[in-house]
Specification:
By secondary structure, the protein is α/β, with parallel strands linked by helices. The protein is built from 8 helices and 17 strands. The strands form 5 sheets. It has a 5-stranded parallel sheet, with helices on both faces. Strands 12-11-10-14-13 form a 5-stranded antiparallel sheet. A hairpin with a 2-residue loop joins β13 and β14.
Length: 249
């Protein structure tokens, strides 16, 4: 059984989430609640929960301010928010989970199942929190990203990602050390997360790191040879855009 607490400044919101959890997530037991940061800090220290459902927007601070109070975090977190703002991208970078209000039951169950899987293979959540808080500092994205897979989360340097390859509803991440990670996120999600960075979707199935290009070989669309000597086809409609990007690196 996973012991959880619900932190939300609205009593109605706390009660609704607790009731939904009780009805649809039998593996979770809500053992406490809090309406503000001060109370939440006390409840967490007194109950030592396995999981915290944490509202982002609260009076006199936010959910991120609460996390800063802990030197070591040993509980999982699922953020809840009524706003789809810049913080969502930072949360995705850290590979932590969030739920948009009103809470969708399917999304809730998926998030809880991820927590269950992570308990079978413990990961250091403090690294994810560090990535999150660094990303939120000045609203700048950090140089690391959390890659979620079926067993947990891997924190990797973005510069070490050579390419991302679509594999149905998953993405295979190829790294500069020769390893690869099968992520539970789609290629479309990574395309969005890496927007504004030196990454390009050169084909429907491949997103590449421009800094890892060794050579472009001409052809109908052509193809690129990357630093790991892999060859990736370039679609005809992306060819000129790619050549322009290469010239500006």
């Amino acid at each position: 059984m996973i012991n959880a607490i619900v932190i939300d400044d609205e009593r109605k919101g706390r009660n609704l989430l607790a009731n939904v959890i009780s009805k649809y997530c039998p593996e979770v037991e809500v053992i406490g609640e809090a309406e503000n940061i001060k109370k939440a800090y006390e409840v967490i220290n007194n109950t030592h929960p396995d999981l915290v459902f944490l509202d982002i927007e609260m009076p006199n601070g936010n959910g991120f301010d609460l996390l800063k109070k802990f030197s070591d975090i040993n509980f999982d977190i699922i953020f809840t928010t009524a706003y789809d703002h810049y913080a969502i991208k930072a949360i995705k970078y850290s590979a932590l989970d969030y739920l948009l209000k009103p809470i969708d039951i399917d999304d809730l169950q998926v998030a809880v199942k991820k927590v269950v899987r992570k308990r079978n293979k413990p990961t250091n959540i403090n690294e994810s929190i560090e990535v999150l808080l660094s990303s939120l500092n000045g609203k700048k994205i950090t140089n690391k990203i959390g890659i979620p897979d079926h067993e947990g989360v891997s924190l990797v340097e973005i510069k070490d990602i050579i390419r991302c390859q679509s594999s149905s509803n998953y993405t295979i991440i190829y790294l500069s050390d020769g390893s690869k990670i099968t992520s539970t996120r789609t290629l479309k999600e990574y395309d969005h997360l890496f927007n504004g960075m030196p990454f390009m979707r050169v084909h429907n199935s491949n997103l590449i790191n421009l800094h890892h290009i060794k050579r472009f070989v001409k052809g109908d669309g052509g193809y690129v040879i990357l630093s790991d000597d892999s060859e990736v086809e370039v679609s005809r409609r992306r060819k000129n855009e790619l050549l322009e990007a290469i010239a500006n690196i």
